[in-house]
Design brief:
The longest helix is centred in the last third of the chain and has 19 residues. A hairpin with a 4-residue loop joins strand 7 and strand 8. It is globular, with a radius of gyration of 21 Å. The strands form six sheets. Strands 5-2-1-9-17 form a five-stranded parallel β-sheet, covered by helices on one side. Strands 12-11-10-16 form a four-stranded parallel β-sheet. A three-stranded antiparallel β-sheet has the order 6-7-8, with no helix packed on it. Helix 1 runs parallel beside helix 8. The protein is built from ten helices and 20 strands. By secondary structure, the chain is of the alpha/beta class. Keywords: FAD, Flavoprotein, Oxidoreductase. Putative FAD-dependent oxidoreductase. One of its GO terms (molecular function) is electron-transferring-flavoprotein dehydrogenase activity. Belongs to the FAD-dependent oxidoreductase family.
C-alpha cells in the first residue's frame, strides 16, 4: 500500500475517489487542491487505455502511457488496494482500512485484472510482445474496438504473421454504425487478416501439439494458431457494491444510476463517473474525462457553498468513435459521416492521443516516466 500525505484544507472536505482509470484519475488530479482527496485504486498507476494495443506491439510505448499516480496527483493520498465495501460514511479496503469521506466518487469502470505496479505492467507488455514475435499465427477473439485495433496493429507491424479474428456478432464494431464495421472489415481483409463472423471460440478445449494450438469454433471450424488474445467485453466494475448501501442504486446491468449532475440518484454526496454510470452514451475515454470535469466543478461549487443553480450538468455525448487501423490509418464515426483512411489516422493513430492526455494530466507530453 502506497500513501501520500493529504493536504489539510479543513473539515467537511474529504473526497474519496474509488478507481484510478480515466475518470477517477482525472478527477483526483483536478480536485486535489480543492479538497482533501484520497484515491483508492488496486494499482499504483494510471494507464491511458486507448494506448494499450500499441503498447502490445511496441512495449516502449507503454513508458509514456503508464503513469504512476504520484506523478500527476501530488497533493493527496493514494491507497493501493481494492475497495470492498461502502457505508454512509466510510469506504472499506481489502487491506482492512476504513477511509472516511464527506463526498464519494465511484469510478470503478469495467473490471480488468491488471498488474499492481507500473513496473509489472510494462513487463507484461514485453511478455505479450514476445508472444506475438515468436508466433507465426495469432488468433484474436472479439471484434469490438479492442480486437479490431489489435488485429490492425499486428497486421501492420508484423505483416508476415497470419492473423485470424473471430467475432460472435454479425459485423465488426457492433457498438457503432454498420458503415464503420464495413470499413474496418474491408481494411482488415486488405491486410490479409482472416475474419470469421457469427462464431464463438471454445477456449476451454484447446488442443496443444508442441506449441501449435488448435481452436474449435461454435460452427465446428478449426483454427490453428500459436497463441490467442481475448478481446471481449469486460464486466462492469460494480460487483463490490452489490451488498453495500449503494446496492439499490444499481440498475439491472450493474451500473450506477446518476442524475444530470452525475450524482447517484437519491444521494447528495455520492457521485459516479465513467463507464460505471447508466448514462445512455458510448463508453468512451473523452466522455469519462468530461464526467471528471463536471464533478470537479460541482465539488468546487459545493465546497465553496455555492447555490445548486451553479452546478454543472452532463448531457449524453453523441455517438462518436475512432478506431485505429495500424500506425497511419483509422476509421471514425461522427454524427454527420463515417470516414476511414489517413485523415482520421493522422488524428489518432500516430500518437494514440498519449501526448494530449499526458498534457491534460499536467505532465510533459514527451518525457518518459520512471
Amino acid at each position: 500500500m502506497e500513501e501520500q500525505k493529504a493536504s489539510s484544507s479543513g473539515t467537511g472536505r474529504r473526497v474519496v475517489v474509488v478507481g484510478g482509470g480515466v475518470a477517477g484519475s482525472m478527477l483526483a488530479k483536478s480536485a486535489q487542491f480543492t479538497a482533501d482527496v484520497t484515491l483508492i485504486d488496486p494499482k499504483d498507476y494510471f494507464e491511458i487505455p486507448w494506448a494499450t494495443l500499441r503498447s502490445t506491439v511496441e512495449p516502449s510505448f507503454a513508458e509514456r502511457a503508464v503513469i504512476k499516480h504520484r506523478d500527476y496527483f501530488t497533493n493527496g493520498r493514494v491507497i493501493t488496494s481494492n475497495a470492498i465495501d461502502v457505508t454512509e460514511k466510510e469506504v472499506m479496503t481489502e487491506d482492512g482500512e476504513a477511509v472516511g469521506y464527506d463526498y464519494l466518487v465511484i469510478a470503478t469502470g469495467h473490471k480488468d485484472p491488471v498488474p499492481k505496479t507500473r513496473k509489472e505492467r510494462i513487463a507484461h507488455y514485453h511478455s505479450e510482445n514476445e508472444k506475438i514475435k515468436s508466433a507465426s499465427s495469432v488468433l484474436i477473439v472479439g471484434g469490438g474496438p479492442t480486437g479490431v485495433e489489435l488485429a490492425g496493429e499486428i497486421a501492420v507491424d508484423y505483416p508476415e504473421k497470419q492473423v485470424t479474428l473471430v467475432h460472435n456478432g454479425p459485423r465488426l464494431l457492433g457498438y457503432i454504425g454498420p458503415k464503420a464495421g464495413d470499413k474496418a472489415l474491408k481494411w482488415l481483409k486488405s491486410r490479409k487478416v482472416e475474419v470469421k463472423l457469427e462464431q464463438r471460440v471454445d477456449l476451454d478445449n484447446v488442443l496443444d501439439d508442441e506449441g501449435r494450438r488448435t481452436y474449435r469454433t461454435s460452427s465446428g471450424e478449426t483454427i490453428q494458431a500459436d497463441c490467442h488474445f481475448l478481446c471481449t467485453v469486460k464486466p462492469v466494475g460494480s460487483s463490490w457494491l452489490k451488498d453495500t448501501v449503494l446496492k439499490s442504486h444499481l440498475d439491472a446491468k450493474g451500473r450506477l444510476m446518476v442524475d444530470e449532475y452525475l450524482k447517484v440518484k437519491g444521494r447528495d454526496n455520492v457521485f459516479a463517473i465513467g463507464d460505471i454510470t447508466d448514462i445512455p452514451e458510448l463508453k468512451q475515454g473523452y466522455l469519462a474525462q468530461n464526467h471528471a470535469s463536471v464533478v470537479a466543478k460541482n465539488l468546487k461549487v459545493t465546497l465553496e457553498g455555492g447555490k445548486p443553480c451553479r452546478l454543472s450538468t452532463h448531457k449524453p455525448g453523441a455517438d462518436m468513435a475512432m478506431v485505429s487501423l495500424g500506425r497511419r490509418e483509422a476509421v471514425a464515426q461522427f454524427p454527420f459521416a463515417t470516414i476511414s483512411g489517413i485523415i482520421p489516422g493522422f488524428v489518432k493513430s500516430r500518437d494514440m492521443f498519449v501526448g494530449k492526455t499526458r498534457k491534460a494530466m499536467g505532465l510533459d507530453p514527451n518525457v518518459v516516466d520512471h
